[in-house]
Write a structure and sequence with these properties.
Blueprint (H helix, E strand, L loop, with lengths): L8 H4 L1 H6 L11 H16 L4 H26 L9 H10 L7 H17 L4 H7 L2 H29 L1
Helix pairs in contact: 3-5, 4-5, 4-8, 5-6, 5-8, 6-8, 7-8
Length: about 160
């Protein structure tokens, strides 16, 4: 497994610190997984918001994330540094839109999102390789979040009918 090289600017530059998921992307291995884990407490804080407010939050996180990821990648001169995990925050929040409360759904959402983020089924992998800049860093995780959201909502529906 390749070790994550973390530039010192992550701890000095607030833009890099946010792009690195409040420092969670500095994990020596599996920074995407650690970034998603770091998103969970933030999700728990936001989970009580009304749905419309939660959707606005996700939209704002996405717009800010495109800029954060672009700026950090540009500064580091690495298109998609593995430590840039703001996209995992957004992808997990997308997964958890309208999720029922409780740890079971938080864990299922985590597993589903990580699965789609790692496997990158079509067109996630295709987009990941073709879209550049901050949007390119974000788009694969956003779509993985949509796939995970659809599966999570399917599981919720199945649980509701049983």
């Amino acid at each position: 497994m390749k070790k994550n090289h973390v530039p010192a600017s992550v701890w000095r530059n607030p833009v890099h610190f946010l792009a690195f998921g409040l420092g969670s992307g500095a994990a020596p291995v599996a920074p995407g997984t650690f970034g998603t884990l770091a998103a969970i407490p933030l999700y728990i804080l936001a989970s009580g918001l009304p749905l419309l407010t939660f959707l606005i939050l996700v939209a704002v996180m996405t717009v800010i994330g495109v800029w954060l990821c672009h700026r950090t990648a540009h500064d580091l001169q690495i298109h998609d540094h593995p430590g840039i995990v703001w996209d995992e925050f957004v992808g997990y929040f997308i997964t958890m839109i309208a999720a029922p409360p409780g740890w079971l759904w938080i864990v299922i959402g985590f597993i589903l999102f990580r699965f789609f983020d790692i496997v990158k089924p079509w067109p996630i992998h295709w987009l990941d390789r073709r879209v550049q800049g901050g949007l390119g860093i974000m788009v694969d995780d956003m779509l993985a979040g949509v796939y995970a959201f659809l599966c999570l909502q399917g599981l919720v529906a199945l649980a509701w009918f049983n």
